[in-house]
């Protein structure tokens, strides 16, 4: 019973797959999960504060310039739309490419972005982002934990080569307290979706800060990539602007 609420988190789970990633996932449950995760992102993700901290101050230096941003694993496009709305409010010129490899959830994304022509929605494999060209900024929210370590290395190699200014990868910190919080709050907030199962598994697939620091030190020395923590229970891998 204790393991249901507070399992051992010393090792990262890289074998189990989230239900929403399966090809045979029930479509209604999948779409309901995407919509629920949009609300969960607003309440519990650090994405908005990270974007405000790392990207918008850079755009303030030259507000007349046209900037580009790639949102990897964009899902229902809620973060891309929020960025577009915030950029409009600040008077910035920003084109956003929202990339996701799951065609089943694209209708949700198109609906979310219908009033934002600056958001381009693209179906594609994040493991081949180099074919998309270069971007000023690259962002991902809860994407890295879907990958194994070799895939993360490959993905970051491409991101480093294709990012002109800065990138930020926001993901889940693996901890027993984060797992307990997810069990309680996601259990209360969500129904008839994959959010409860996938949310808890996502934390078990998440990262310890020291794990990511060791990974970066071994694989990307001298690249300026940093690892930080954000609240609530997030670990952030980022390369700041050269003037940050």
The number of domains? 1
Order of helices and strands: HHHHEHEHEEHEHHHEE
Relative strand content: 15-25%
Please write the CATH class name: Alpha Beta
Shape call: globular
Describe this structure in words.
The chain has 244 residues and is α/β, with parallel strands linked by helices. It has one domain: Rossmann fold (3-Layer(aba) Sandwich), CATH 3.40.50. It is built from 10 helices and 7 strands. A 7-stranded mixed sheet has the order 3-2-1-4-5-7-6, with helices on both faces. It starts with a helix and ends in a 5-residue tail after the last strand.
Summarize the SSE layout with pairings:
Layout: H1 2-5, H2 27-44, H3 47-54, H4 56-61, E1 66-72, H5 78-90, E2 93-100, H6 106-112, E3 119-123, E4 135-141, H7 149-162, E5 163-172, H8 176-189, H9 195-204, H10 209-219, E6 226-230, E7 234-239
Task: Please describe the structure with a list of short key phrases separated by commas or semicolons.
single chain; 244 residues; alpha/beta; Rossmann fold; seven-stranded mixed beta sheet; 10 helices; 43% helix; 20% strand; globular
Task: Describe the structure concisely.
The chain has 244 residues and is of the alpha/beta class.
């Amino acid at each position: 019973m204790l393991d249901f609420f507070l399992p051992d988190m010393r090792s990262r789970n890289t074998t189990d797959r989230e239900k929403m990633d399966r090809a045979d996932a029930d479509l209604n449950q999948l779409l309901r999960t995407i919509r629920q995760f949009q609300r969960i992102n607003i309440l519990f993700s650090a994405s908005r504060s990270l974007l405000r901290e790392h990207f918008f101050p850079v755009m303030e230096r030259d507000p007349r310039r046209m900037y580009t941003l790639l949102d990897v694993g964009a899902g229902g496009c809620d973060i891309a739309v929020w960025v577009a709305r915030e950029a409009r409010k600040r008077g910035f010129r920003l084109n956003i490419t929202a990339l996701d490899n799951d065609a089943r959830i694209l209708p949700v994304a198109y609906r979310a972005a219908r009033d934002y022509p600056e958001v381009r929605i693209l179906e594609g494999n994040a493991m081949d982002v180099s074919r998309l060209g270069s971007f000023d900024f690259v962002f991902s929210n809860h994407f890295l934990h879907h990958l194994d370590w070799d895939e993360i290395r490959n993905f970051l190699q491409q991101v480093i080569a294709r990012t002109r200014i800065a990138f930020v990868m926001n993901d889940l910190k693996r901890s027993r307290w984060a797992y307990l919080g997810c069990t309680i709050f996601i259990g209360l907030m969500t129904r008839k979706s994959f959010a409860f199962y996938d949310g808890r598994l996502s934390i078990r697939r998440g990262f310890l800060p020291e794990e990511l620091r060791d990974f970066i030190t071994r694989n990307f020395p001298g690249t300026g990539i940093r690892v930080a923590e954000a609240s609530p229970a997030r670990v952030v891998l980022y390369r700041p602007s050269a003037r940050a």
